[in-house]
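Appendix B: complex inputs.
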Amino acid sequence: MQTETIVQRFPKADDYLLEILLAVQNNNPEHYLPEKDLHYIAEYLGIPDSRVSGVVDFYTFFSTKPRGKYIIQVCDNVPCRIRHSQVVINTLEKMLGIHFHETTSDGLFTLEPTSCLGHCDESPVIRINDDVYTNLDSEKVTKIIQKYQAREEKK
Amino acid sequence: MITQPLITKRCGNIDPLQIDSALKAGAYSLLQKVLDLSRLQVIEEIKNSKIRGRGGAGFPAHIKLMSLYQENSPQKYLVCNADEGEPGNFKDRYLMEHDPHLIIEGMAIAAYAAGTSRGYIYIRGEYQKSIEIMKQAITQASAKGFLGSQILGKDFSFHLEVRSGAGSYVCGEEFSLLESLEGKAGRTRVKPPFPTVKGLFGYPTLINNVETFANFPIIMDLSGASYAKIGTPSSTGTKLLSLSGNIQNRGVFEVPFGIPFRKIIDELGGGIPEGRQLKMVQLGGVCGPIIPEYLIDMIVDYERFEVFESKTGAGAIIVIDDSQDLFELLANISDFFAHESCGKCTPCREGHAQIRKTLDKFIHYQACEKDLISLESQARIMHQTSLCGLGQSAPTSIISALYFFRNAFFDRINASNCQEVSA
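Resulting structure:
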């Protein structure tokens, strides 16, 4: 969908800035906010470009660089850490050959740390795009990634 | 059973996506009752219940309601803080995903009492499922006439909207949240004025936690006086606890205030698995104090939550067993706050790097006695001089560990290869 179409669904009120940025980024297959989109949003809301980029910089969700088709977010906060989130992180890094904030060369996966996902009773936890996976260990997380890889190979 | 489901009594028994299922179980019947009362009568019931805010700080709920009621302003706002970003807490998510209508009903009751016609639920972006459910619930409630204009045929309008966060822990702090709702970076404001005087878009604003709003229909159902008999005299009602960590049964439990932590850990939690021993418990989330095993006989109430001036009343209990290293956990917590600091005030922006450097010496067995003294002063300075709750509570884990586990620090210093001669 065109960025313009998405933006125009929102009222021309600057308190919708976060909502608009989220919608535009979600619509982008590479999960990021290109410069021209930011400029269009600023123009639409009648606010300076600097206000838009200030907000984009502040919030962890926003990226100005292209990311993978699947964004794997791993929680390593205390409730996950004490139930071995480090094992999950090591497994993912080994399997995908990337570290945090990197994308696999096929453009499929980006690995990111995340703040608490609020599933501490099912830790350790990861999120892949909007789907949350819980009670993980090395074996489970391997199977999950293989499932995504198999889905892509079929295409 | 030591649980007492009041606000969670419909959870699991209704379909959160079907308003008819909630209506059959009694949803919105209290709103109907409230609209026949005067606004002051409603505030009086809330006052009699002695309920305190459930988000952490524990401020008496009726005072904020009354302040808003008394404000003469062309516009007033109601905001539900569903930015449950404190690691270890998941009770608000549980409520939103299981009984969204209880929260909406509670907000509508508060809106009526305070005299506000517009409200927002600010939900953290990580909670996609909660966002979807709350949005659907609002659409369904509006279609049935429980939200919108002329609610239930009365001269009362209340328009409610969901807004999403975008990954910022500090936005759980009320002024940062308001900034974010205005479409800005979530950097806090200097207070006073407090939000009830000058809040969203500069207008008087009432902000409460999800769980606080969810209690309002219960209070109107039982009567304030009966509600006040639940729990302890200073902490009335029930509390949702988020139990996590090295424990058999993890999850959300609703208990009356006054239950000892040990009972929660042993009876509801089912003890520590894998033959391990309980080493410590972190209360409230990672911003809260770390307490030793011998303190868990204390009871759940607001006074106990305030160990070390921390506002940890959100009700997280993170159980930590004896396989865990204290210094690794303190470093993990410090990294979390360093990442989440907004950078506006110096003690918080610079303090985390200093603290982390000192902690590293303990982790790598290079600590001297003077490092313990530095750590103590760095933590105190950040706690006392930071602008908002984030910086003030970030060092709580360290301050509490230095107090309760001081020997662990000395043991590490003794085992360290300290290169410097102590003065």
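Chain A has two domains: 3-58, 70-153.
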